[in-house]
Specification:
It contains 11 helices and 14 strands. By secondary structure, the chain is of the alpha/beta class. It is elongated.
Length: 331
């Protein structure tokens, strides 16, 4: 039971506790008093007088104290969120942006540590968004309502849906990876475009890979465009980030058979046996795999193509070979 408390004693945390979760607060309150020298919510009461509530020691409903809606694009919180679009800021603060109903929902489902949620009801597209905000509040996540202009400042999308979360990054070391008895891995070296890395995450997740290993990346895993293009797969598939040398040494220590894609390879992906522990190595669309990665591979494979172009999209190439491995393993 809350006895006699002043607003000063309640402070920001106490007031937040009196605010609604989904619009209501249920609890036990006897008296609420205001500190001397401050006016109360009731103008008829002088500073320091006690406001006695009629529902002492009973379950009660307190009308929600409305949170301030951030309207200014120059608000410090808005500016701090906007800076997370820069990689140095993400790395310094250990935070990243997860924008959108699908992405934020999947982050929460996978127990990602979401620290804050910013929402703009004007941009909601259905009741699911409001339900997610209510659920976040119930879980104790700081939820901040912002106006449309302020939300557009922090959003990286055209036509945003009014939801954006700030989450904590996690350890992406090789040592964290837990492999099955017969692992299938995707290894991507020097991926430059966030969209390609996001698509590789989706492909690896769809094929049921044990993990995606990202070697010497030019873009980082927590880039907002990687999160968006992965459609939430960044939260569902284990990922390690390391150097190419570290990846090769680790795979060799685990007895994993590596297959490097190369247009010059004489053996096609149909000709290799992927039924054992395997890793598919892919390079950037521009330069392909490094000489080091090619030289370290157990086998080199190509994907036969009928047209004049000798380069498939990297995620498409990954999908072709990975699903051949899946087919072989299901025999």
């Amino acid at each position: 039971m809350i006895g006699e408390l002043t607003l000063a004693e309640l402070g920001g945390v106490g007031l937040a506790a009196l605010r609604c979760i989904g619009g209501f607060f249920f609890g036990h309150v006897s008296k609420l008093c205001y500190p001397p020298g401050r006016s109360s919510l009731n103008p008829a009461l002088g500073g320091g007088e006690r406001l006695s509530l009629p529902f002492a020691r009973e379950s009660c409903f307190i009308p929600p104290v409305p949170d301030e809606v951030i309207q200014s694009r120059q608000n410090p919180r808005i500016q701090a969120v906007a800076r997370l679009r820069d990689r140095p800021e993400r790395e310094a603060r250990g935070l990243f942006i997860a924008e959108g109903l699908r992405e934020l929902s999947r982050a929460l489902e996978r127990k990602v540590a979401v620290a804050e949620v910013y929402f703009c009801p004007e941009l909601f597209r259905g009741v699911e968004a409001a339900e997610l905000v209510s659920g976040c509040r119930a879980a104790g996540i700081d939820c901040c309502e912002v106006g449309r202009s302020a939300f557009e400042k922090i959003s990286g999308r055209e036509g945003p849906d009014g939801l954006l979360g700030i989450a904590k990054t996690w350890d992406c070391s090789l040592e964290r990876l837990k492999l099955t008895a017969n692992p299938l891995l995707l290894v991507a070296e020097s991926v430059e475009k966030p969209g390609n890395l996001g698509a590789l995450l989706r492909t690896a997740d769809s094929a049921g890979c044990d993990a995606l290993i990202v070697c010497d990346p030019i873009t980082d895993l927590f880039n907002p465009n990687v999160v968006r293009s992965s459609q939430g797969a960044v939260f569902s598939i284990p990922v390690a980030v390391c150097s190419s040398a570290e990846a090769v040494a680790w795979m060799q220590s685990k007895g994993i058979h590596s297959l490097a894609t190369s247009p010059a390879a004489t053996k096609t992906f149909w000709d290799v046996d992927c039924r054992g522990p395997s890793a598919l190595l892919l390079g950037s669309e521009k330069d392909g795999l490094s000489d080091f990665m090619l030289g370290s591979a157990n086998e080199k494979i190509s994907i036969p193509q009928a047209g004049l172009s000798d380069s498939l999209n990297v995620s498409m190439a990954a999908g072709i070979v990975l699903f051949e491995a899946v087919r072989q393993r299901r025999k």
